[in-house]
Amino acid sequence: MVLLSKASSSVSSEQYSYTSNCMPTTFSSSSSSSVPIVDLSKPDAKTLIVKACEEFGFFKVINHGVPMEAISQLESEAFKFFSLPLTEKEKAGPPNPFGYGSKRIGPNGDVGWVEYLLLNTKQEHNFSVLGKNPEKFRCIVNSYMSCVRKMACEILELVAEGLKIQPKNAFSKLVMDKQSDSVFRVNHYPACPELAMKGENLIGFGEHTDPQIISLLRSNNTSGLQISLRDGSWLSIPPDHSSFFINVGDSLQVMTNGRFRSVRHRVLANGVKSRLSMIYFGGPPLSEKIAPLPSLMKGKESLYKEFTWFEYKNSTYGSRLADNRLGHFERIAAS
Ligand SMILES: C=C1C[C@]23C[C@@]1(O)CC[C@H]2[C@@]12CC[C@H](O)[C@@](C)(C(=O)O1)[C@H]2[C@@H]3C(=O)O
Ligand SMILES: O=C(O)CCC(=O)C(=O)O
Ligand SMILES: [Fe+2]
């Protein structure tokens, strides 16, 4: 069921007692690059962001303005939720597409060493099944999301300024729109002690790109996140619980006509410590046309066919995690 790098083994822990299907895998990783760090309070932020989005589709943000209190309250509520008995957590599931999920990711057979809560940002959830004090959980999730949405807006305005796009809210207005189809996810990767003993790798969340515009990720201090570099090697991202990590999503790649790179990334589970991550996926309204901004075309053809976010999202949910989802929407260049 879950991928390990060497021989087969049976994995068991309190809530994870199942046998994994182990497949030999080689995990090459790179250590010669490091991730760009952007200080949002500095005047060079917009230039560094554009460069990072072009080169990596990924960067780390410091001085982000999200109060540590909002972060730690959510982390503590999330840990409380994930430590409930499985039967309690399953009351908030299955994720179709929102709710509690365990091991299965998406509707098409992907699996990972992860359990999660997937929420939409329009607060249409039945929070009454979310743990012991659902009202408290709801307040904490809402205040965290509004802080992170503000940061997403700030970053997207810096992107527009860095790319000399007018008006500067060309991207940010999409995630600030009341109809914005944004998603919020909390992932919990339990420690897998068997891995520590065998020195093996276990996929927590398989490789993929995020379909939305931008993703803002914060995790506790447990490693696991890797991004794919242009040469195909994997770069391990050292965890930093006080910073945020930003991913360019497929939609931003399209809106910049391929100038920005939607980064492939994955998570490996940890043998010793559990990882908790919270990700805000900033998406446009469903009816929004996703197309390159005219000012970025400079007489060039669009690399992509026209589509709405609704069409892209539908196609996404028919795909496997590792698929190249944008592939269907690329235009074949006329020679
Ligand atoms: C396998 C899948 C899970 C996913 C929907 C999909 O069919 C392909 C994209 C996956 C992804 C990756 C980024 C986000 O975590 C996510 C919520 C999203 O929008 O696209 C997940 C989807 C999911 O877990 O439902
Ligand atoms: O949990 C993480 O650190 C990243 C997970 C991820 O990439 C996702 O949920 O799309
Ligand atoms: Fe992701």
From TrEMBL:
Pathway: Plant hormone biosynthesis; gibberellin biosynthesis; Hormone biosynthesis. Gene3D superfamilies: B-lactam Antibiotic, Isopenicillin N Synthase, Chain. Pfam families: 2OG-FeII_Oxy, DIOX_N. Its EC number is 1.14.11.13. Belongs to the iron/ascorbate-dependent oxidoreductase family. GA2OX subfamily. Residues 179-284 form the Fe2OG dioxygenase domain. Transmembrane segments: none annotated. Keywords: Dioxygenase, Iron, Metal-binding, Oxidoreductase. Catalyzes the 2-beta-hydroxylation of several biologically active gibberellins, leading to the homeostatic regulation of their endogenous level. Catabolism of gibberellins (GAs) plays a central role in plant development. Converts GA9/GA20 to GA51/GA29 and GA4/GA1 to GA34/GA8. GO terms for molecular function: gibberellin 2-beta-dioxygenase activity; metal ion binding. It comes from the Eukaryota. The keyword Metal-binding applies. Its cofactor is Fe cation. This is gibberellin 2beta-dioxygenase. It catalyses: gibberellin A1 + 2-oxoglutarate + O2 = gibberellin A8 + succinate + CO2.
